[in-house]
Amino acid sequence: MTYAFWRGIQQKRHRLLDGGAVGWIIEAFAIVLSDMVYRGGNNYVALTEVRDSLYQSGLDFLKWKEGYHPEPELVDQALKVAATLPIEKAIVSRHSFTQHDNGIIDYIKFSFRLFGKNILSLYLGYYLIFSAAVVAGCVAFFDTPWVLWVMVTALVGFVLMLDKTTIMGGTEIVSENNQRFLSTFAMIPSLHGMAISMIDMAATPLQIGLVVVQALILHLAVSSRPTSNWMVLPAVMVWAAGLYSSPLPLPDALWNGGGWAIPLMIAVVIAVEWRRRDRMHRVYYSDYATNTYMRWHGAYLGFTLDEETWNANRLPNQAPVRNDENGVFAVRAWVEADPARACDLQEPDKMFCPFQLGARWGLYGRLIKEVCLEYMRKNRHTLLRLYLILKPRSFIQVMGEVLKPLWAMPAPRHLIVLAALVVAVIGVAATLPAAMVPLVGLMAVAMLACMPLPQIWAYSIAHGLVDNVWTTLFAFPLIVSLAIIVAMT
After folding, report:
1. For residue 184, which of 473, 480, 476, 478 has the smallest C-alpha distance?
2. In this predicted model, what pLDDT tens digit does every residue of 314-326 receive, in sequence order?
3. Treating both helix axes as pointing N-terminal to C-terminal, what angle do 22-36 and 72-82 enclose, rounded to 10 degrees?
4. Contact between 477 and 425 (Cβ < 8 Å)
5. Which of 42, 61, 77, 472 has the largest count of CB atoms under 10 Å?
6. CA 62 to chain CA centroid, nearest Å
7. 3-state SS assignment for residue 256
8. Tens digits of per-residue pLDDT, 400-442?
């Protein structure tokens, strides 16, 4: 963790807002300042004066493409100005975050409260939260060496992802405070819950408290980057296998064994999310926002992978390749094709353009689902090939490009990391009891099998594979450790 933190400082990642997410983060700044400074209601909407102040200070909301990186001094000064406005009348901005992604607001607010209202706070906040998950794991399993070695393997994989793949440093992700990168918060809490399920750990007050901490961090991950919720599936599989293999009766296994951890973790995540949604502004339940993850938009864009079928159905204005505007054109055509589908088009340029300010995300989300289902019904004979061949093949190709630097000649600092990975593999092999090999193997295989599910549903793109790359760099070395144990026994 210290090495990853130091490398980020060395590469100046602690002073960067990055790529495609910069517009979202600036919007989040307005919401956070509205609540922290002007008591905007803690309901995930911004005061218009605060948002406009950031815009007028040079943070252009519409420059969210082409790798726009505002100067850190400009951002810090804009935050300072927006936090000292003489606001007498609070006007709630009509535009706000989409509900499924606004967990980043909680992350920014946490960082600003602890470290001040500046870019550096986001970097410090990221590593503080990440470190809290690691420390909670170390405390929980201080007397279980093989679990600690598994965590070491995971952390070495994290460093390799930062330093030896193309995940970090492109036009989209150049720092840990990127919204897509916050999904990494989910890994250690998931491992924590699975480890408890495997070793039959009793539910003591300390262990319950540590699981609650991990659940809060897991919630921050899935509310900031909902695609990271795939990690719940391996956790549930390991939990069920742990209960099945436990020598204790089921009631005892659920409390005195390890069966309590995963249900408690999921319950805390659901309770916190319910409380968070309860205090959200009503705009999140209107046409101007969405109360569900826009999974259907991603699914529609993924149809372009079947070029023959897509071109046979493509509308005149749609691109032959994946493009966000393809969904916009499809929804517009779907509504205009049937008068019964007509709705209020007083703002036609914004009604179906969810990638502009003032867009009607909620309305678009509902209609793109109908468009997507209609496309599936019309082309149902091609879906098996799309989802079982084309999308997995695209996923493997994109992953290969991201991992390609791993095979290049390592620099001296990489040799240290690779040596640490070898030590971690040996550590797991030396300390893991042979009886635990099936459960740990299930965990590794389940993670590898479940990680591409979001991409198979939607599509694969390099900067969207943060979870996948880390899982690969962690699970495969873990499987090597298990193979060593099997060979020796």
Report:
1. 473
2. 988 888 888 888 8
3. 30
4. yes
5. 472
6. 23
7. coil
8. 999 998 888 777 878 888 899 999 999 999 999 998 999 999 9
